[in-house]
Amino acid sequence: MELRAEELKKAVRQQVVNAIDYTKDISDEEMYELIDKEIIRRTRSLMMSVDDRKSLRMQIFHSIRKLDILQQLVDDCTVTEIMINGTENIFIERNGSIRKFEGAFESKEKLEDVVQQIVAGCNRVVNESSPIVDARLSNGSRVNIVLNPVALNGPIITIRRFPEKPITMDRLIALGSISEYLRDYLSVLVKAGYNIFISGGTGSGKTTFLNALSDFIPKDLRVITVEDNAELQITGVPNLVRLESRNANVEGCREITIRDLIKSSLRMRPDWLIVGEVRGGECVDMLQAMNTGHMAMSTGHSNSAKDMLYRIETMSLMGMGELPLPAVRGQISAGIDIIVHLGRFRDKSRKVVEICELEKELDSMGKITLNPLFRFEEDRDSIASGLAGFEGERIKGTWREVGELKDRQKLVAAGLDLPAKRG
Q1: Cα–Cα distances in Å, from 94 out to 73, 79, 172, 405?
Q2: What's this model's pTM, rounded to 2 decimal places?
Q3: CATH says 67-161 is which class?
Q4: 200, 221, 258, 387: which could form a disulfide with 282 (CB 3.0–4.6 Å)?
Q5: Could you report the per-residue pLDDT of 251-301, keeping only the tens digit for each?
Q6: Per CATH, is 169-414 categorized as 3.40.50.300?
């Protein structure tokens, strides 16, 4: 029966494609009319329920106008990640759990058509000579595509879906990702103009946290965002400029990198510069902005706040060339004020793991010193059970204050005080 349904779908789709008048634009309503007409003609003698006909209608429409079987997953707000490993193996993440999706593409050619449809929608190019590309869907989802010959079992598509409405700090508190006191603490630091770097592993919620943190920026300031793929959902800022990098293409358009955008943004009179993520030499330009009177925030991948420092050093050396390491470290310690490190725990929850201050003076060995301010400590009962995340249990713990902010010059200049300590 399933084979029969698939054959029917292919036959109806082919007839509809043949009936399309390509000399004029066909609206979605007209497309549905063509599909309905052909479905009625072919299923008149079949025992087919109304729901089955509706499902067939939608599948055919998606295969012609949308992203084929991916469309239902893209439209499902409970699906946070879609992983396509060739035509047969599709996996989805829902509620932090990954499972295989039953559907599959009818052919490799159809999957390749979907790939080209995705990249064309955001003016990107992907082919055998340039087999890797980052793109985004119309709903803001992040897309990474890898083709043959790099992906041996490709095409490979990875789609990261972001919430339709930005997640606020209050929502993060409700999810147990941060405490009310830490929210108030970070709010004061942002309003005072402290440069903040958010670190964490893959899927730890860096972009979400950056988006929520940016909501504390005073609304009367000029904010410029720089991203590889536009993902940030900053709201309520009238004077907002959004910049996105661009790959070179066959039409002769040259590549515009994150470094190009940061350099250009500094001529746009930014009060706050928000760089979605730094991965390489653009780290230098971000530090230059931080060290020349601009307030900035960014994110980066690392396993801890200390590891993030080493990565920033490495990325800076990639962009600065022969500059001595002590000079690089001086730029980092002078530019970045605070590192907020996020983690993903075994119960799939995402939390602030630690908040550290970068001391402005290098130590006797010429290294940057971190001053830990807060650290998440898991309750002993939660550790002892070891079952959090496996039997519906949630990790419990508290954020303990382990140090005090030393550099308060920006607080004084802004006329602000840190929130009173809570017992």
Answers
A1: 11, 5, 18, 39
A2: 0.80
A3: alpha beta
A4: 258
A5: 667 889 999 999 999 999 999 999 999 999 899 999 999 999 899 999 999
A6: yes
